[in-house]
Design brief:
single chain; about 90 residues; mainly alpha; Arc Repressor Mutant, subunit A; 4 helices
């Protein structure tokens, strides 16, 4: 039997349905063509991961933003240097 890969969005959707508890795990699993154990596992992962989504430290966000900005700056510099290199190559081939 070939394993099917599910997208993170699909997993999140199923886990949220399980958290709402409007249907049993078995009903949700049956409707989506999954094994009930899989639905329970995704639900547990969502429950365990949810608190960390709201406890992100401000300094961590600042550091991540600084890293993104530095990456963009370096990419611009690389692009500029590539253009200058091409220009120099053309000038030397006169």
């Amino acid at each position: 039997m070939k394993r099917r890969k599910r997208s993170p969005d699909f997993k999140r959707k199923v886990a949220i349905e399980a958290l709402k508890e409007r249907e049993t795990i078995n009903e949700i699993a049956s409707r989506h063509g999954l094994h009930p154990v899989q639905v329970s596992q995704w639900k547990r992962e969502l429950e365990q991961g949810a608190p960390s989504m709201f406890t992100t430290d401000v300094t961590e966000r600042r550091e991540a933003k600084a890293l993104r900005e530095e990456k963009e700056s370096l990419q611009q510099l690389i692009g500029k240097q590539a253009i200058e290199l091409e220009w120099l190559k053309k000038k030397l081939d006169l």
